[in-house]
Amino acid sequence: METLKSYFGTANLSDFYTGAVAQRAISQRGREVAELVGNGRSIGIRLDNQLAWTFRVEKEKVAIYEGADQASLVISSDGDSWSDLVTEAWSMMGLAIQGRIKIEHGSFNHLAKWEPALQALYNDRPIWFPEKEEAIGTHAFSMNDDRKEMMNALSRLGFILVRSVFVEEEIEMMRSEVEERRQKASPEDKRSWWATNAQGEERCCRVTYLNYGSEFFSNLPNDSRLLTLAALSERKLSPAPHHGDGVAVVIKVPGITEGLSDLPWHRDCGMGGHPLLCPGLNMGIQLDHATAESGQLKFLAGSNNYSGGADYANDSASVIPIEASPGDVTLHYGHTLHIAPPPIGGDNYRRTVYVSFHIPEYQNVLPEGQGYNDVLFTHGDGRVRAPQERMGED
Fold first, then answer.
1. Of 342, 374, 375, nearest to 261 (Cα)?
2. What burial class does residue 208 get, using C-beta atoms within 10 Å of its C-beta: 0-12 exposed, 13-18 middle, 19+ buried?
3. Structural domain boundaries, residue 113
4. Between the CA of residue 361 and those of 155, 238, 367, what are the distances in Å?
5. What string of pLDDT tens digits covers the 394 residues of the chain?
6. Are residues 283 and 346 both part of a single domain?
7. 73 plus 140 within the same structural domain
């Protein structure tokens, strides 16, 4: 994706640990990093075997030193890759899965811990802590509710649920087409995600680009109801069915023990592209009842304007589980932290069709048929893998 560089630009090497970054390290952002990673923790960054520096938490701030050898976590990379991290063309995880960052000392979990910390230092993005919890209020609406209230809730919480958007006949049509496409999918097609159950059997847990070869799903992104919901966004958005994952379905398969079926707390910019992806809205059309038994989606309310939060989310009062019925639609900004635990029991599972709406630049920067999640296929066997699997860790 060569156009990424022209859109995101290039950061100056000397700015990676000086100037505004150094000022943030000893001010509010530094205090937030200290609370997140813990006193005495440090990351050493070595670029091109020439430039090296360390961020170390000391006395509720971040101290910056030349050299990287004494850090508890030491990583190596190159100037272009680190520039992509600073500009958010790629995330730490996106770079890691491409092999553009190497862990010299320490673990993958340490690296994941420093991701939001570096976002705070480099991009002045505050870190979410429990004291930032929102007063939840109403998060569920109908199409006829006051639009201003819906817009305010979406902006404040990062998500909303809209009831009874699609009728049963439409849901049945989607179920039928989804099942047909699931049956035709294969682990080698690079248009589907697969995971493995305890018996060693591969199960399809996602199919992308449902709109290719389907009249119904081709028309779905321009459905007047979805366009009306997209207009709730803070920015002007348009459907982008020929980019990213297209129109996709997530299938919550029970009993999965390996693979990317049940994602941990994450954001949709997990591989990178936050300024490009996260103004966008992802809409999930529920084909089944969403409950704890079926692997319901959960959001961390108000996390859309922060980095971090995953370390505190499970115990937070701001976690909102989505109880939904077939035909209901969820809307969430890409940067809203969310999770969908595995379904409970062999007969309970959930299918959700996703349609995404994005800023105009999205379609100009990403080539047709491509998206950030494509890097999950770069291990060479046609299957998606988590970053830690790509880097050889459990």
1. 342
2. buried
3. 3-123
4. 21, 10, 11
5. 657 888 999 998 888 899 999 999 999 999 999 999 999 999 999 999 789 999 999 999 999 999 999 999 999 999 999 999 999 999 999 999 999 999 999 998 899 999 999 999 999 999 999 887 767 889 999 999 999 999 999 999 999 999 999 999 999 999 999 999 999 999 889 899 999 988 999 999 999 999 999 999 999 999 999 999 999 999 999 999 999 999 999 999 998 888 888 889 999 999 999 999 999 999 999 999 999 999 999 999 999 999 999 999 998 999 999 999 999 999 999 999 999 999 986 677 899 999 999 999 999 999 999 999 988 876 555 556 555 555 554 4
6. yes
7. no
Cα distances (angstroms) measured from residue 166 to each of 284, 287, 326, 352: 12, 10, 8, 13
Q: Is 69 exposed, middle or buried (0-12, 13-18, 19+ CB in 10 A)?
A: exposed
Which amino acid would we find at residue 247?
A: V
DSSP 106: S
Pull the structure tokens for residue 302. 């108000």
What Rg value do the Cα atoms of the chain yield, rounded?
A: 21
**245 contacts 208 by C-beta, under 8 angstroms:** yes
Which residues sit opposite 251 in a β-bridge?
351
Residue 78: exposed, middle, or buried by beta-carbon count in 10 A (0-12, 13-18, 19+)? middle
Edge-to-edge strands of the sheet including 61-66? 61-66, 51-58, 42-47, 73-77, 102-105
CATH of the domain at 269: 2.60.120.620
Query: Measured between alpha carbons, how far is 263 from 187 in angstroms, rounded to an integer?
Result: 18
